[in-house]
Design goal:
This protein is about 90% helix and about 0% strand. It is mainly α and about 575 residues long. The protein has 2 domains: about 70-220, Four Helix Bundle (Hemerythrin (Met), subunit A), CATH 1.20.120; about 300-560, Orthogonal Bundle (Helix Hairpins). Helix 6 (about 245-260) packs parallel to helix 7 and helix 7 runs antiparallel to helix 8. The longest helix has about 90 residues, at about 275-365. It is rod-shaped and about 230 Å long.
């Protein structure tokens, strides 16, 4: 009992400690609580089984010990009395048959008394060496002692009566048998009284043990009920603290959040920190903030996509204008090439005319007038060449202006492509394709800038050559005028004219060479302009792709805003 009571006290201490361990998980607390209830139930069951076993053992000891000895003693007394009655009848009756029957009865009862007495002696000898056991053994020894004297007396009376000596038998019965029978009955009654007191004490002990067992069981039941109530209170309180609300309320709130309703959860404001309801409230606030941020970002993306689409449209228009300007430059360069070829042909003709003039000058002064006329015509052609060179210079300057426009457009295209790449990087994965397009546009813009620089260099060379050719034309025109004056003043200076014609012929050759070089440069410029036009075509195509990507991005932003609009913040 003390061990069980100590276990109970330990269980109560564990229950009290469980109330302090709020940091444990709900599963652990439930397992410990129900485990403790199982242990208490097992202890109550074990105590009940042990108590029943002890009660059964006491009952078995009573039945097999005290009650059995009481039965043996009653049978012994009855057999002794029956033996005495048979002995009395033996001396009173006269019928031989009846006398023999009584003698047999005496012998039978005597054997029965001996057997019962031996069993009674064996029963008290197994008792523990206690006061009750010693008293029982002494009382049984007294009965055995009297029986050892009384048994032979009864047999002797039977022998005397059967031998016909009834008087001696009656005397022995009166003198010895009756006193011994009284002593035997007294000893048996003493033992019965002692046995009754032991039986009463055993019954009293059993009743006390029953009361103790009943009290212990009632105590354990009350303890189990108390612990169950405490554990139930702790578990319910812990679950309420962990959940913050009923599971149905939590399920309703979770379904409301899952359906897109992100309005503040009023119940979460009064919940315990760290509970499921508090966590749901925190999740709702964070989701609401996230949805607001995503909504703002999608609006920014949509606005940026619209701005980018407008900028791309402007770029496309600029590239179209650039193509028109480039076509005009190509036409002008083509005309310049034709003019240069014409100058070259005129230079060849001037050289041929100078050669003829030299031949005719050698024949005489009669051909001076023809030479003067041809020189005048040459001067006219030189003037035309000078005018063409001046026009070439003007067109070269126009080309430089066009190149500046192309350079400005390329810079703007590069800047727009850079801004588009930045916005695409902000858009993340959704703007990755747009970033690739922006990078291609920026590459084309860089190529346009490089080609523009090359055309600018070629145009500068062309302007320089045109200026040199114009200067030469001015020199030729001055020489031609002087030749005309000299030939007009004197027709006899043929040798001087011939020398001057030689100089003119050399100058014309230089002009022809310069014209050929100018033609080559013009062809190179024409090819560069064609390349610039191709680049402009590529830029226009890239602008169209950029515009398409911008529209897709704007549509994606609109779809994202529609999806976010399903949430109620």
């Amino acid at each position: 009992m003390r061990h069980i009571l100590g276990c109970t006290i330990r269980i109560l201490k564990i229950s009290w400690r469980l109330s302090m361990l709020n940091s444990w998980s709900v599963r652990t607390r439930l397992l410990l609580g129900f485990g403790l209830m199982v242990v208490i139930t097992f202890m109550i069951s074990a105590f009940s089984v042990i108590s029943l076993n002890e009660s059964n053992l006491r009952f078995s000891n009573y039945v097999d010990g005290l009650d059995k000895r009481m039965g043996l003693m009653n049978d012994l007394l009855l057999a002794a009395q029956q033996r005495a009655i048979s002995a009395r009848n033996l001396v009173l009756i006269t019928s031989a048959v009846e006398r023999q029957a009584e003698a047999d009865a005496i012998n039978t009862e005597h054997q029965k008394v001996k057997k019962l007495l031996s069993e009674l002696v064996a029963g008290v000898n197994v008792l523990p060496p206690s006061a009750e056991g010693n008293n029982a053994r002494s009382l049984v020894a007294e009965i055995e002692k009297i029986e050892k004297i009384y048994g032979p007396v009864a047999l002797e009376i039977t022998r005397l009566a059967m031998s016909g000596n009834d008087k001696a038998a009656i005397d022995m019965m009166n003198s010895e048998c009756l006193p011994l029978l009284k002593k035997l009955v007294t000893s048996v009654m003493n033992y019965k009284s002692f046995n009754s007191s032991l039986a009463q004490a055993s019954i009293s002990d059993s009743q006390n043990e029953y009361k103790n067992t009943r009290n212990f069981l009632m105590f354990f039941c009350a303890l189990a009920i108390t612990i169950g109530v405490v554990l139930t209170t702790l578990i319910v309180r812990g679950l309420s603290r962990a959940l913050g609300a009923e599971p149905t309320v939590l399920s309703t709130i979770a379904q409301r959040v899952a359906s897109g309703d992100l309005r503040p959860i009023l119940e979460a404001k009064m919940s315990v920190a760290g509970s499921v309801l508090s966590s749901l409230g925190e999740m709702q606030s964070r989701l609401s903030l996230l949805i607001s941020q995503v909504n703002t970002s999608s609006a920014v993306i949509s606005d940026a996509a619209v701005d980018l689409s407008a900028a791309t449209e402007q770029t496309r228009i600029g590239v179209g204008n650039q193509r028109i300007e480039i076509d005009q430059v190509a036409t002008a360069i083509h005309e310049m090439v034709a003019t240069t070829l014409e100058v070259a042909r005129n230079s060849e003709e001037a050289a041929h005319a100078a050669l003829n003039a030299n031949l005719h000058a050698q024949t005489g002064g009669t051909m001076a007038k023809d030479a003067i006329a041809q020189i005048k015509r040459l001067a006219s052609e030189v003037s035309k060449s000078a005018a063409a060179m001046a026009q070439l210079k003007i067109e070269s300057l126009n080309i430089g202006g066009v190149l500046q426009v192309i350079t400005s457009v390329a810079d703007q295209t590069n800047l727009l492509a850079l801004n588009a790449a930045i916005e695409a990087a902000r858009a993340g994965d959704a703007g990755r394709g747009f970033a690739v397009v922006a990078d291609e546009v920026r590459t084309l813009a860089k190529r346009t800038q490089g080609a523009t620089l090359e055309i600018g260099a070629l145009t500068a060379n062309l302007q320089k050559i045109a200026e040199e050719a114009a200067g030469m034309m001015e020199v030729c025109r001055g020489l031609t005028d002087e030749t005309v004056i000299q030939v007009s003043n004197t027709g006899s200076s043929v040798e001087t004219i011939v020398g001057m014609i030689d100089n003119i012929q050399q100058m014309v050759r230089q002009i022809a060479t310069a014209g050929e070089e100018q033609s080559c440069v013009a062809e190179e410029i024409n090819r560069s302009v064609t390349s610039v036009r191709n680049i402009a075509d590529d830029s226009a195509l890239s602008c169209e792709r950029t515009a398409s990507s911008s529209n897709d991005l704007a549509e994606l932003g609109a779809v994202l805003q529609r999806q976010i609009g399903k949430f109620t913040v």
